[in-house]
Structure formats: structure tokens, C-alpha cells
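STRUCTURE:
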């Protein structure tokens, strides 16, 4: 089998290492922005402006958001729709904590504040709103949201 050398590594000559990739401009580009549920700069639930992605895993993505009504930083976690029962359990725990501890103490301890849904490319996604903990993101390096994304 013939081989070619590409950057010092041997590759079979019939692979794409020796053949240029042909881009079909007639097809829509299926980049990351076409698959995302939430984009930077979006306003979720007419209240939370998305500024930065904090973390992600196989079931959810967490974003740094600015609460436009309360003028506070929030973490909004967007989860897949099959996580609905888990999301409602989180919200019920938060509601119970707010009733038992009071609003300020429950927020200080990081209980879920709100649950809402977001329509995405593959159906409905569940969003959970939490207070932003100081260890999740360093706010000193964040630009003011009105200057950065408007």
C-alpha cells in the first residue's frame, strides 16, 4: 500500500491526508452555533442576559447571567428535557428553604430560585436559576454587560 508523509507522520495515500477537503457551500453550515440552545447575548425568560458559559457536562450547560430586574449576577443552568423531574425537585427544595430560612439566607446558601423552559433545536429544555457563588467565576474580569453585548 502506498504511503505519503504529512508533517513527519506516515499516512495511507488514499486517505484525506493527501486529498484536499471539498467544501460544499450549497449546504447550510452545521457549526456549533446552529446546535446551541442558548447563545451569548440572549435574554432568557425576558429577564436573564447570558454573558458567559461557566461550565458544561453531558446533561447541562451553566451560564453566567445578569438578572435585569434585580440587577444581580445569576447562574442559569440549561438542562435537557428528560431532567424535568430533577429540576422540579431542585426548585421544591429551594422553595422549602426560602420558606424555612428566609429569602436572603436561602439565596446565600445557593438554593434554586426559579425554573423555566427554553425552546431549542431539539425540543424543550429546562432552565434552573441559582445565585452566583463567588468560586464559580471571577467577576473582576467581566466587562459590564451593556458595554460587552449590546
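SEQUENCE:
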Amino acid at each position: 500500500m502506498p504511503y505519503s508523509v504529512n508533517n513527519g507522520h506516515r499516512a495511507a495515500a488514499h486517505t484525506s491526508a493527501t486529498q484536499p477537503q471539498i467544501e460544499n457551500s450549497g449546504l447550510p453550515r452545521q457549526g456549533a452555533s446552529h446546535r446551541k440552545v442558548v447563545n451569548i447575548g440572549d435574554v432568557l425568560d425576558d429577564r436573564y442576559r447570558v454573558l458567559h458559559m461557566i461550565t458544561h457536562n453531558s446533561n447541562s450547560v451553566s451560564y453566567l447571567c445578569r438578572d435585569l430586574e434585580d440587577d444581580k449576577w445569576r447562574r442559569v443552568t440549561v438542562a435537557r428535557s428528560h431532567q424535568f423531574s430533577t429540576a422540579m425537585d431542585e426548585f421544591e427544595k429551594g422553595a422549602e428553604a426560602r420558606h424555612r430560612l428566609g429569602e436572603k439566607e436561602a439565596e446565600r446558601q445557593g438554593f434554586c430560585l426559579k425554573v423555566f423552559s427554553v425552546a431549542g433545536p431539539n425540543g424543550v429544555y429546562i432552565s434552573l436559576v441559582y445565585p452566583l457563588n463567588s468560586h464559580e467565576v471571577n467577576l473582576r474580569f467581566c466587562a459590564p454587560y451593556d458595554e460587552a453585548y449590546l
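REMARK: The helical segments are 32-35, 84-101, 103-108, 145-149.
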